[in-house]
Amino acid sequence: MRKPGLYFLVFLLFAFTFSCKGPYEDYSHLSLFRYNEDGSITSLDPVYARNQANIWATSQIFNGLVQLDTLLIVKPAIAHSWDISDDGTVYTFYLRNDVYFHDDESFEDFKGRRVVAEDFIFSFARLTDPTLNSPGSWVMNPVARRNDGTLDIEALSDTVLQIRLKEPFPPMAGLLCMQYCSVVPREAVEARGQDFRKSPVGTGPFHFQYWKEGVKLVFRKNEKYFEFDGSDRLPYLDAVAITFIQDRQTAFLEFIKGNLDILTRIDASYKDELLTPHGELQEKHQERFYKRTGPFLNTEYLGILVDNNAPNSLSALQKRKVRQAINYGFDREKMLKYLRNNLGTPAHAGFVPVGMPGFDKNEGGFTYQPDKARRLLAEAGFPNGEGLPAIELSTTSLYMDIGQYIQHELARIGIRMQINVMPPATLREMMAKADAPFFRGSWIADYPDAENYLALFYSKNHTPAGPNYTRFTSHEFDRLYEKSSSVVDDSLRFEYYRKLDRIIIEEAPVVPLFYDQSVRFLPHYVQGLETNPLNHMLLKRVRIENSTDR
Question: Higher pLDDT residue, 1 or 335?
Fold first, then answer.
């Protein structure tokens, strides 16, 4: 049995070491990975893993039944295999018997116990607990309910879990890969109550060590982690340390000085210092760093409120040909070259981005055709823009440069655009209330299925009840969307998705700008960092090699 007093002293010593600023040599004996989070981690409880900051942190501590690989293929995690019934409504998962929760005082003798099927029933029930108000409660929407309102999930044994759905929902396995669906132990949750958010217990490659909110967060290696890389038990790192420098320029300087082991964002203040106009790493940095990029399932777009009944809709934007003219009226390739150093892919297809299974890069979307844009304006009753009122774009300061570029380009074809810059929270509220007739938006995939994007145009998802911020309505779209939801065959379902995306292209309730790209700058001593199109931070296979080069 571990002695509580000794454990507490060791904890304090370690916490002090990692929370104090000082020379890295103070803990150079550890294989330590350091990254900065310029957002706010609000909780380490997976039921609140809504944003990227929370997801990156909780993914180091927790596991679910299944997980996504670098190609977004659903792979085993705590479940080593699973079956799906022929009608697509019953999922049976077979659990490993060698997965243990992290050692914790809430368990007998401080030793983490083995994970069993009942733990998932408890964990999924937390998602739907109204007292917790989890933003991930919707993940359980496809699951059938019993007469008493509880989820129709059953533990057939300690290692067999069965989930029944209301109707077939092919993306279900992908949903279960989300951090919301991580397994947590009842003992620790009940012992800590609300404090579970800041002192979590999971099964992941790292266990929680220390958190001074807004300053530093530290995870330590889970010596009993169940995954292996060949004959080597993961993870390779001894620890992960997260800082919270909000100013991106300051974080960039810390990376250049060698105080951080990764840079994950590009900011206008230093993008030209790091990248050439073609998006390559500047030669002067190549000796110390390397760059990794990949598709990121994020579509950046401009949204148009197309609901005639919305009090703030603009009559000119209700005309489809005006919306199409905007789409044809600016050069996306030039925009990416000069404003983003070619990081990303011009959105010349539909709303579904590059990297998504079933994506068709030849979908036939919008390219730069200014003459066609002028012709469409004339056909809409506004030759050379005459009689067309100025349209106001609601955006944030972070995207001011893109707004100004489009403003300049559209002016050349006769469309006058004004820019209204506001805080992100204000813009989100306006979008939710349908108060923004023309707005800058982005949609990051929650799970690897195009349904996640196409749901933004389903009429039953009109805001504020759902994410249809444009309030787009099409009976044909709704019919195909509902039909696709029950199709189990991937090839047939993808064909439905392509038809749905073509409707969005034709009706143009949005102006797709670009499909995003993840970019990571790393010192050469960091190896093994994986990424996937959901832009997850996957650290369990990271190695620190030749750490004396730091």
Answer: 335
Tokens found for residue 268: 């206008």
Amino acid at 382: F
Express each pLDDT in 339-370 by its tens digit: 999 999 999 999 999 888 777 666 679 999 99
CB half-sphere exposure, 472, CA atoms < 13 A: 26
The DSSP letter of residue 549 is G
Answer left, alpha or beta for residue 151, where phi above 0 means left and psi between -120 and 50 means alpha: beta
Give the pLDDT score at 414.
96
CB atoms inside a 10 Å sphere around CB 283: 8
Angle between helices 320-328 and 370-379 (to 10 degrees): 170
Which CATH architecture best describes the domain 296-516?
Roll (3.10)
Measured between alpha carbons, how far is 150 from 134 in angstroms, rounded to an integer?
Answer: 16
How many CB atoms sit inside 10 A of residue 507's CB? Answer: 19
Q: How sure is the predictor about 419, in pLDDT bands with cuts at 50, 70 and 90?
A: very high
Domain 4-244+529-549 CATH (choose: 3.40.1280.10, 3.30.565.10, 3.20.20.70, 3.40.190.10): 3.40.190.10
What confidence tier does 216 reach under pLDDT thresholds 50, 70, 90? very high
pTM score, two decimals?
A: 0.86
Q: Which of 392, 447, 433 is nearest to 416 (CA)?
A: 392
List the one residue out of 403, 419, 450 whose CA is nearest residue 301. 403
In the predicted structure, residue 18 carries a pLDDT above the cut 90: no
How far, in Å, CA of 58 to CA of 50, rounded?
Answer: 10
What is the pLDDT, as a whole number, of residue 492? 92
State how far the Cα of 221 lies from the Cα of 30, in Å rounded to an integer: 11
What DSSP string runs through 360-428?
A: -TTS------HHHHHHHHHHTT-GGGTT---EEEEE-GGGHHHHHHHHHHHHTTT--EEEEE--HHHHH
pLDDT band at 180 (very low <50, low <70, confident <90, very high): very high
**Domain boundaries defined on the chain:** 4-244+529-549, 296-516
Cβ contacts of residue 409 below 8 Å, gap of 6+?
A: 329, 330, 331
